[in-house]
Amino acid sequence: MFLGQLVNEALNFALKTTIKEPRPLGCGHPGYGMPSSHSQFMAYLAVYCVLWSYRRVKLDDYLWKILGNAGLCALAALVMYSRVALRYHTVNQVLVGAFVGSIFAIFWTALTAIYVDPEISKIEKWKITRMLYFRGHDHR
């Protein structure tokens, strides 16, 4: 997830320097506004965690999973709202940030499921990792 966030931030920087859309007038904050990096990060975090929880978290009571995910999505929405309310970004800048972050989270989740998860399963079988009680994400 952390490496995905670093790549997400690099993507945001590349988009900002390519699009070069200014922030709202009177903002007083330097730099470009499109897409909103806060919105992109929060969308990435929320979507990645929701996808991760449904693939990995084993709960007998799904209500806790639903409540946790709803809370995280509400927090993401609150951050996005605050970026517009504080006049750091326009609505479009926030929406584009949320879209890019969400799509990147889906992409990153698929990428790790295809390429990283099988390697972790192999590492779990090594003698040294068994001796050290290493358990990957699929351990129940």
UniProtKB/TrEMBL annotation:
Coiled coil residues, start to end: none
Name of this chain's protein: Dolichyldiphosphatase
Purpose: Required for efficient N-glycosylation. Necessary for maintaining optimal levels of dolichol-linked oligosaccharides. Hydrolyzes dolichyl pyrophosphate at a very high rate and dolichyl monophosphate at a much lower rate. Does not act on phosphatidate.
Family label: Belongs to the dolichyldiphosphatase family.
Species, as recorded: Lotharella globosa
CDD domains: PAP2_dolichyldiphosphatase
UniProt keyword Membrane present: yes
GO aspect biological process, one term: protein N-linked glycosylation
Keyword Ribosomal protein attributed: no
Domain of life: Eukaryota
Enzyme class: hydrolase
